[in-house]
């Protein structure tokens, strides 16, 4: 059997696991189980639930929002692991001279963000905490390569930046943080799979989690080398990538009650604002223990 791992640039752990195939982290963990490994690169992490359900991939990872929207779409997924919190992974930026001071000041404004990613969770939760609605009180537009320029010229009021884009924007100056991610959500990387694989072959999930930890350990110990890989592949300067990657925790943790509660809160906000069409019970995305023989 070949285990296919989905990989996209927005999930740092999977991205570096893929680019470190020369070290064989995934292969070394799966081969003792009689399994081979393949990677399936794709560009949009929001599609992860769909790709799992179609059998294109067996294992994937995103930020906090895509598994909730995948559940809402009827995909039977199971959470397998999460990263430690990433409080400095991103931020909502405004111009230094902007009159906006709190999330409540976003009412009636246009905000650029990666819609459907963890950034939707960030903005929806910040607005909800301020008594506002993601659906009704702002105009959410999808970020583009021109978002920073549009922010600086006043064409949009705020922009959620992350990774090397955030590092570059801060290095350039002229912008300030309106909402710090860690003040609103934990912003974890989230890893998940199909229920059948999680419940019938839990040893494979354990092996994949060990592989992720090994890749994370490498990236934490070699931030400059990790930055060079990302810069050569995705653009941006090595320095900005190193700043961004050094801000990540590079630690994989078990799925816990606090994480599930935060995901449920996000799901409830998304449903209340119409971002998802039906309610989601996040606890359903947990593997059932194998039945004991009688």
Question: How would you explain this protein's 3D organization?
Answer:
It is a single chain. By secondary structure, the protein is α/β, with parallel strands linked by helices. The chain has helices spanning 12-19, 25-30, 48-53, 65-72, 118-129, 147-152, 163-172, 195-200, 202-221, 223-234, 238-246, 257-273, and strands at residues 2-7, 36-41, 59-62, 77-83, 90-95, 110-113, 139-142, 158-162, 175-180, 190-194, 252-253. A five-stranded mixed β-sheet has the order 7-6-8-5-9, sandwiched between helices. The longest helix is centred in the C-terminal third of the chain and has 20 residues, at 202-221. The two termini are 30 Å apart. The model has no long low-confidence stretch (mean pLDDT 95).
Strand and helix layout:
Layout: E1 2-7, H1 12-19, H2 25-30, E2 36-41, H3 48-53, E3 59-62, H4 65-72, E4 77-83, E5 90-95, E6 110-113, H5 118-129, E7 139-142, H6 147-152, E8 158-162, H7 163-172, E9 175-180, E10 190-194, H8 195-200, H9 202-221, H10 223-234, H11 238-246, E11 252-253, H12 257-273
Helix pairs in contact: 1-9, 7-11, 10-11
